[in-house]
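FORM 7B: Structural annotation worksheet

SECTION A. Query
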Amino acid sequence: MTAGLAAAAGAVTTRQAAAAAEYLLVTVEQSANQIQRWSTARSSWSGTPDWYWTAPARSGAWYGLSDVKRRLTANWDDVLVTCAGGTPKDGGRAAMVRESDGAIVWQTVVPGHPHAIERIDGHGAIVTASANARVFGQPVPDDPSTSQDESDPDGKFEAGGGLNLFVPSSHGGLPPTSFADSVSTGFPGAHGVLWDNDNDLLLAIGKEELRAYSLVTNGSGIITGLTRRATLSFSGMGHDLQPDYSSGKILYTVGGDGGNPDAGVWETTLVWNSTDAEWNFVTPTRVHTWWFIKSFSRLPDGKEFCVDAPSAEEWWSDRVGYYQDGAYGYSVRPGAKFYKARFWSHVLS
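SECTION B. Predicted structure
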């Protein structure tokens, strides 16, 4: 059995876990459209964040920052990979921001309402997970059942979605900036993506499935595609996908409320079956029956942290919640619209 995710987003550089340990979290906050870093030791997050970066715009492709992860690169130092959902007309945005000076070292437009982003260590590829299929700038039929922005006169998002890999043409280079040059794999409702550095697998979650993919590469080691290696099925829309930094397990959330029997937070691991030469997800265990969880993980000391939206109509919260040993706590920023919270960590190259 391979626990496997300790290095996925997470062979981390941090303090030793201890009682009442202080950890740093990085969030996407949609009111200011910022990436913000905060300490878990502060119950009030009023005032200026410890570190922050503001998106170049609050509209168009930069509308609604939807994910962030901190990663280490060989050529651009520590970076934050981030994406924004954008609009049907303009598409969304994916970018790599250098931590030291806030410079955007790479960016591109991504159609289909990107919800999540990752960087594949050792390959320099950026991966986005788009929840809907959409050729941006082109109108589609007025169908409220598939709409993400019913007020947009230029069209609606269509059903579908998938993973898009922006792969450098040479080792050590930047990814391409044209969506047409990306490597795409269909995955309806794709909401989360995570690189498992231990097992060299790309994990993704979307409508009714958690998937594991291996990379397909050419003779030069450049990624040319993905091969699905394992699938875990459930009811509803998979939303977030993160490592458990205290155990290396895989944590994922499923959306909905009491009407969906699988709504809540779950954990699993990947197992290599040497007899059949295949990967399998272990039967998942439900962690919580909480509804509308937008992000969830555990810190190295086992403390859980999450963004818990109040309803399906409000996908944000003004606080990040904590849970450990039966006790709840919060860090609150009045007026904020937090959508995701991540452990401030990075993969070590």
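SECTION C. Observations
DSSP finds no helices and 24 strands in the chain. The CA atoms of residues 141 and 155 lie 7 Å apart.

SECTION D. Sign-off
Analyst initials: ____
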